[in-house]
Design brief:
single chain, 2 domains, four-stranded antiparallel sheet
Length: 309
């Protein structure tokens, strides 16, 4: 089955439910998105009116988008034209980018994306800042007009693909932490992950893997219904303190994550069974045949931790 089509219906299974019975994904703020479209067109009209009349009276918001869209205060060289700061196309491009960014922030689409997709969106949102950018020259870089139809279609499409984005993100965490693929560890999160995290006597640390652990903690919080973003520094201090003062064993996030350290800085991470099957079920949406069914379904009397030799 084509992965993109698989998520087109927007139907979320039990693996996307929190401990409280809700969805791991946020409720869509339709009213706020509709209000944002109205606000965009009101401000767009004022900007065009200002450009056409060169009025001496204008709101700070109007001039802010002219300045942003034409390089003022961005470090980008301006043309020699004295009226360049009032180029209406530049101002409208800045306005359009700002409102698409606001629309993404109103939903949990952006935070559900893996880093590569976030960076692709960042590039598109900020393409207008590149020297020489002109709308229409490279349509792939252009954002659509911020009208009701475009917002409804694009945001709805992205919202329905949140399971795909989360699957990509969870799979990336598994591969990044374990340095294995599903072919060599088909149990995925049902089997402890051996991680060279560092945290040894020389106080070295693998910051990339620590970042992945922090990302995993955020996903765990979503499954628990909290959706709290743990701070990178907090995660580091928690694990380092545990290694040095608590017999090298640490239960994190209510015992969902269990870390066991050795003197060389190698860490074994065990994920609680109730979360492990959900993580695996999410990954299986991306790789349907890679994880055996027994490792991606919930079992009765699910043990707190799944331990494998």
């Amino acid at each position: 089955m084509d992965v993109q089509r698989q998520f087109a219906g927007g139907e979320f299974g039990d693996e996307y439910k929190t401990e409280r019975g809700g969805s791991v994904f946020a409720t869509v703020p339709h009213g706020q998105l509709a209000a944002l479209v109205v606000s965009y067109w009101e401000l767009r009209g004022r900007i065009k009116g200002m450009a056409s009349t060169m009025a001496t009276e204008h709101s700070p918001d109007d001039l802010r988008y002219f300045r942003k869209g034409n390089g003022i205060c961005t470090g980008i060289p301006l043309s020699a034209s004295p009226d360049h700061p009032l180029d209406v196309e530049g101002a409208l491009t800045a306005l359009r980018s700002d409102f698409w960014s606001r629309a993404l922030q109103l939903t949990d689409v952006y935070e559900s994306m893996p880093q590569a997709r976030q960076e692709a969106w960042n590039t598109r949102l900020l393409a207008w800042l590149r020297p020489g950018y002109r709308r229409g020259v490279n349509p792939a870089e252009d954002l659509p007009e911020f009208d009701k139809e475009s917002v409804d279609n694009l945001i709805s499409n992205l919202l329905n693909r949140r399971p795909l984005f989360l699957a990509e993100r969870v799979h990336g965490i598994f591969v990044g932490l374990s340095e294995k693929c599903l072919a060599t560890q088909p149990e995925a999160f049902y089997k402890p992950l051996v991680i060279d995290l560092g945290l040894d006597e020389r106080e070295r640390v693998n910051y990339q893997k620590l970042g992945l652990i922090n990302e995993l903690r955020w996903i765990v919080s979503k499954f628990k219904g909290a959706n709290e973003q743990p701070h990178f520094t907090t995660t580091y201090k928690l694990l380092y303190r545990a290694k040095t003062t608590q017999d090298a064993v640490c239960d994190v996030d209510g015992g969902v994550l269990k870390f066991t350290f050795d003197k060389a800085g190698v860490t074994e991470l065990t994920v609680g069974g109730e979360i492990a099957w959900k993580l695996n079920a999410v990954i299986s949406k991306l790789h349907p045949s890679a994880i055996p069914e027994k490792y991606r379904i919930r079992h009765r009397n699910q043990p707190k931790h799944i331990l494998h030799s």
